[in-house]
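Reply to thread "Modeling small-molecule complexes from scratch"

Following up on the discussion above, here's a worked example others can learn from. I took a protein sequence and the SMILES for 2-oxoglutaric acid and predicted the complex. Inputs first:
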Amino acid sequence: MTQIISNLNKTALVVDHPIGQDNPPLLSPDSHNDDQDAPTQKMLQLSDFAVSWEDRLTDKQLDTFVTDGWLTIDNVFNKTALLALQAESGFIDYRDAALTAGIRISDIRGDRIRWITENFFAGYYYLQSINALAALFNRSLFAGIRHSEAHYACYPIGFGYQWHSDNPAGRDERVISAVFYLNDDWGATDGGALEVVDKHGMHHEVMPVANRLIIFDSDLQHQVQIAHRQRYSIATWMRRDGLVPFVEVDA
Ligand SMILES: O=C(O)CCC(=O)C(=O)O
Ligand SMILES: [Fe+2]
């Protein structure tokens, strides 16, 4: 097993390009005006995050997902949505991630997280788009998903997350895990691959490149290898229970 974690206290979290007066969030790459109509996060709309999941996922891909337990989709969102998620992930205030029991064990996971609620613009729209995907899983695979939860995560340099399944022993409320990646120009030397063991026991490595979504059965074992660059993502779970729904699945 890879040794994942070093000492969190010794690694300061650095935001690469902090959003501020000198670096406002730029959500519309084609717009150069600096008057009062300049883009702000409030101009984002749910429609910016609309994905036609039925068209993106063929029946064959859905079959593969059922058989192997995992699937990746690239180029998920348009540029506006991706930039908004990247901006929102970069300037929020990260807290230490806790394990399910509420106890932090920094030997196991080194990510710093922020749960997405309706107070987030981009993250909340993201969650609604994920719920449209969940509705497709309900219709086509009878997945029985009732709501989704998600958090932004940042792994500082030198950190990862050891082997685990997203359903701790004796639990099964998480049906499908989905992780969306936010990292531009992520290369093999940057580390931080997600390693998943599929339903046949085969290992796969998925690089956390921007605009990629990996979807996998929450019972599968997986780990995040040590990142050599700050690694940003949104970890998402589609759940079968009815607890604390941030966003309900309609269908
Ligand atoms: O960021 C990833 O690639 C996976 C994160 C993960 O496994 C988790 O948060 O449970
Ligand atoms: Fe996980």
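What I'd highlight from this example: Confidence is low (pLDDT under 50) at residues 1-21, 28-35. The radius of gyration is 18 Å. Questions welcome below.
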